[in-house]
Each structure stands twice: as C-alpha cells, then as structure tokens.
Amino acid sequence: MNDVPTIDVVAAVVTDGDEILVCRRGAHIGQAGRWEFPGDKVEPGEDPIDALVREVQEELGVGIRVTGHLSTDDTHVGDRIIRLACYRAELEGERPTQSTDHDELRWVGAGELDGFWWAEPDLPAVRILTAG
Q1: What is the mean pLDDT of residues 71-89?
Q2: A Gene Ontology molecular-function term (predicted)?
Q3: Which of 93, 105, 111, 119 is packed most tightly, with the most Cβ within 10 A?
C-alpha cells in the first residue's frame, strides 16, 4: 500500500516565439532559489487545465492558452509525492513582468534550460524540452 500523500500540481511551459518562460522560486516559499515552470496545486474537483489557467493568472497576472500536454511525472519530495502535469501554453497578451511566487522571470531558449538549478518535479519536462 502507498501511504505517501500525492499532491496534484500543474505547470505551464509558456512559449513566446522561440523562448520559454522560467521562474525562480522566491525566498518566501519552499525550495527557494530553484527554477520552475509557473503553476501550482490543483484544487479538489478542479479541471487541471482550468487550474493552470487560474494559477498563471494569479501568479503572473497574464492569461495563457493551453496548447497541449507535455508530461506527467511523480517525484518524491520530502514525505510526499508531487504529481506534476506540464502543459504547453502560449501567452494571451504581453509578457509578465512580476510574480507573486517568484523573484525572477526569464525568457530563454530550450538549449539554455540545462543551465538552471531546477526544482526536482520540473526536471522530467526539462529533459523532454532539451532533447529537442
């Protein structure tokens, strides 16, 4: 039996042209200083894509259009499992300039993704994106 709690989380691989948005976790949240794709927990009964659109709007103040599923992976973090579903998305409007959860936002090419200190749950998606 698996007694480890699983938390469902969604993240957006937001692209604008050939660049991908990456976000550094702020000092006020766990795994501070690590990089991730924007997103957060799915509320009970909430559709994952609806949760992702809501979370990006709350964190970054911008709208996105989800264009497809990239990956779903389970990662043990502490005493729980993070089930992270990553979706490809495009901006609706201007690029975000600030975040409620992150202290830095960067737009980078896929070839630059390996140069960041990633939160562990995001690593499987990073591997897919850097593989081309």
Answers
A1: 95
A2: hydrolase activity
A3: 119
